[in-house]
Specification:
The chain has 447 residues and is an alpha/beta fold. The chain folds into 4 domains: 11-105, OB fold (Dihydrolipoamide Acetyltransferase, E2P) (Beta Barrel), CATH 2.40.50.140; 122-266, Rossmann fold (3-Layer(aba) Sandwich); 358-395; 400-440, no CATH class. Helices cover 48% and strands 19% of the residues. It has 12 helices and 13 strands. It has helices at residues 11-26, 63-66, 107-122, 148-160, 178-191, 220-228, 245-249, 257-264, 268-303, 307-348, 352-395, 397-402; strands at residues 28-39, 46-51, 56-61, 78-88, 93-103, 138-143, 165-170, 199-206, 233-237, 252-253, 407-409, 427-431, 436-440. A 5-stranded mixed beta barrel has the order 1-2-3-5-4. Helix 4 (148-160) packs parallel to helix 8 (257-264) and helix 5 packs parallel to helix 6.
């Protein structure tokens, strides 16, 4: 009896599955150890071993990532590596594909960085947010004259907007002299701004590197110099994952030098494309407008008549109006003449003397009635006035005083109503029906 067939994986299939499992399960991670067996073949890749006192792992740093590593890769260095666990399928070698290299023992630097960052942030040093001119008339670049960053920036600027005027101020971008040199350059550029007002933007840039390589851009005095700069500043230090205090203090931060150049100037190709599109739209619009105007011109031409025809019609119309005007004048004159004759006949039949005498008599009668009415009205008003005078005299205080009463005033002119309002020896004034008296209070009585 034959045994059942056994399904077996090929070696390449096993290695492929193993690689997929490692890459899926571990993902990206950090590993710390010591470098050994560092090899740099002509391909530009770097191969080495990372080990500790009990184990080791093969590592590969490919060329496109190696050029971003600023720290030297040397045997015996203690480093932290960021990468992905994988498997080199042809040999079945378990390895670490390195993305970034960082010297070990950076904890103190990172702690100092965080403390200084919080201090400057609380002081408002990171509050700059001015917009840079777009595009700048004259761009001032602080960078290393021999670094890859300046080459990337100039290449992008030349391709996108060759009209920009660029001035490179070479400064060290690494080491103890870097921060003081950049501070002096910023101060000089701001002083020279009055001499050349066309200078209107500063770019501070360098390529990637380790935390130590970029430490000059975490200098407290450099961050303050950027904050106080009257010229707006863009910072593009390192790569996207690198963030320095200079980036926070600047008005604008770009993730890379190339990205900074792209943000500073427009893309001439895109502008040319939009210009071409606008030109096409303008050409099409002009063509459509010409078609409409041509059609309207044809319509007007069809409606247009010879000027002689129009003059002939106007002449006939004018003659008709002239005939109607003469006929209307004659009719109006005849009507006015007939009315005048009728009025003359009516006037001739009137007795003017008799009508004048009648009018004179009516006027005399009206005058007589007016005089009589005026006399009656005057008598009525006189009687009414006398009655009002009697009523007024009846309620007048003077009439009451005339019957023997008096009004008592103090020296302030106030009327005294009660005996209690006076004092013995007080001088009072009495107003009588005729004249007044000044008296002195001897005694007061309640009744």
């Amino acid at each position: 009896m034959s045994s059942p067939a056994i399904e077996a994986l090929s070696v390449s299939e096993l290695n492929r599955r193993t690689r997929q499992t490692l890459e899926r399960d571990f993902g990206e991670l950090w590993v710390e150890g010591e470098l050994s067996n560092v090899s740099r073949p002509a391909s530009g890749h770097i191969y080495f071993t990372l080990k500790d006192d009990r184990a080791q792992i093969r590592c590969a740093l490919f060329r496109q990532r190696a050029r971003f590593v600023g720290a030297p890769i040397r045997d015996g260095d203690q480093v932290k590596l960021r990468g992905r666990v994988s498997l080199f399928e042809p040999r079945g070698d378990y390895q670490l594909l390195v993305e970034a290299v960082q010297a070990a023992g950076l904890g103190e630097l990172l702690a100092a960085y965080e403390r200084l960052k919080q201090q400057l942030d609380s002081e408002g040093v990171f509050a700059n947010a001015r917009a840079l001119p777009f595009p700048p008339r004259k761009l001032l670049i602080l960078s290393s004259a021999s670094g890859a960053a300046i080459r990337d920036v100039l290449t992008v600027l030349a391709a996108r907007w060759p009209l920009v005027d660029v001035t490179l101020i070479p400064v060290p971008v690494q080491g103890a002299e870097a921060a003081p040199a950049m501070i002096r350059a910023l101060a000089l550029l701001n002083r020279q701004r009055r001499l050349d007002p066309q200078r209107d933007a500063i770019l501070i840039t360098r390529g990637g590197g380790s935390l130590e390589d970029l430490w000059a851009f975490n200098n407290e005095h450099l961050a303050r110099a950027i904050f106080h700069s009257r010229l707006p500043v863009m910072s593009a230090v390192g790569h996207e994952v690198d963030t320095t205090l200079a980036d926070f203090a600047a008005d604008v931060r770009a993730p890379t030098p190339s990205a900074a150049a792209e943000r500073l100037v427009p893309d001439q190709q895109a502008l040319k494309g939009r210009l071409k599109e606008q030109q096409q739209r303008l050409t099409q619009g002009i063509a459509r407008r010409l078609e409409r105007e041509s059609q309207q011109l044809d319509s007007l031409r069809a409606r247009l008549r010879h000027p002689g025809e129009a003059l002939s019609r106007q002449r006939q119309h004018l003659q008709g109006l002239q005939t109607r005007l003469l006929r209307a004048q004659q009719q109006n004159l005849a009507q006015q003449q007939a009315r005048l004759e009728q009025l003359i006949r009516r006037l001739g039949g009137q007795d003017l003397k008799r009508r004048h005498a009648q009018a004179q008599q009516r006027l005399e009668n009206a005058q007589s009635r007016l005089h009589q009415a005026m006399a009656r009205r005057l008598s009525q008003e006189r009687q009414r006035l006398q009655g009002l005078g009697r009523e007024l005299n009846a309620v007048s205080p003077l009439a009451i005083l005339g019957r023997g009463y008096a009004i008592v005033h103090n020296h302030q002119g106030e009327v005294i109503h009660r005996a209690q309002d006076t004092q013995p020896g007080q001088a009072l004034k009495l107003r009588l029906g005729e004249g007044s008296l000044t008296v002195e209070v001897k005694r007061r009585y309640k009744r």
